[in-house]
Amino acid sequence: MFIDTHVHLNADQYDEDLNEVIDRALENNVTKMVVIGFDRKTIERAIELAEKHDFIYAVVGWHPVDAIDCTEEDLKWIEELAAHEKVVGIGETGLDYYWDKSPKEVQQEVFRKQIRLAKKVKLPIIIHNRDATSDVLRILKEEEAHEVGGVMHCFGGSVETAHESIAMNFMISLGGPVTFKNAKKPKEVAAEISLDHLMIETDAPYLAPHPYRGKRNEPAYVPLVAAEIARLKGISIEEVARITTRNAEQFFNLTEQGSK
After folding, report:
1. What does the UniProt keyword field contain (predicted)?
2. Is-contact 166 139, C-beta < 8 A?
3. If DSSP codes are grouped into helix, strand and coil, which group holds residue 7?
4. Paired strand residues for 129
């Protein structure tokens, strides 16, 4: 069994064939999926999917690229949704210095507010980090995010950064890039970091693993991520599946009835 801990089944890219995508995931032993909402539209869709399917869970938050659009009303709404039995985390939030839609200071303020919200509702934080590692780690420390912990989603940093994150009560989640031939850092992290601190994801529809790189990603491909981690560690894919599934179930408190 595999768990896709970060997938955007709520994305427009699945409008035509969502049921088939879900069926293919289940056929490939991806038995649970965590759908990430990051603005009004995707949060609403994530909740709908979680309410419709026993094996789908939702995470709600505001993406850093769109931080400039986030209002106090939005944050209050996210806080209210956190009480939903199928909501298992806050995010994805964090910092993205690659795109320049939202000024850095705005991103940082919205990030801090969501960390405080997560601590208030006692849910883990799902972190988006692009070209902003030092500021992400600094803010997590300053806001004492270790109290609830979280996930470094689609981790692309160094082994040293992974250890620093783990020390702050964060899990390391690896996705499709670990399968890319030129992905030095994710491969080093997969090889060096204990399985006890790893989870797997697709970030679908983005970042499809080899041999589907450049095409639309989907949760049925998460076993390819597990297979590459197994290869790098010199262990069986069954072992990777077993431990990453256990990690995700414990971390997100996943049950068929809900999470609360």
Report:
1. Hydrolase, Metal-binding
2. no
3. strand
4. 95
Which sign, positive or negative, has the C-alpha torsion 154, 146, 260, 85?
negative
Distance CA 157, CA 65 (A): 19
Residue 182's Cα: distance from chain center in Å?
Answer: 22
CA-CA distance, 197 to 192, in Å (whole number)? 11
Output the six-digit token pair for 193.
């970091």
For 6, phi then psi, to 5°, come to -160, 100
Mean pLDDT per 10-residue run, the chain (260 residues)?
98 98 98 97 98 97 97 98 98 96 97 98 98 98 98 97 98 98 97 98 98 98 98 98 97 68
Spans of all domains in the chain: 2-252
The label of the residue with tokens 């077993």 reads: 242
Alpha carbon dihedral 13, 186, 243, 250, in 10-degree steps, equals -70
CATH H superfamily, domain 2-252: Metal-dependent hydrolases (3.20.20.140)
C-alpha dihedral (94, 99, 102, 108), degrees to nearest 10: 30
Q: Contacts by 252-259 with C-beta closer than 8 Å and gap 24+? A: 252/5, 252/34, 252/57, 252/88, 252/89, 252/124, 253/88, 254/3, 254/32, 254/57, 254/88, 256/54, 256/55, 257/85, 258/85, 258/86, 259/57, 259/85, 259/86, 259/87, 259/88
Q: How far apart are CA 147 and CA 139, in angstroms?
A: 14
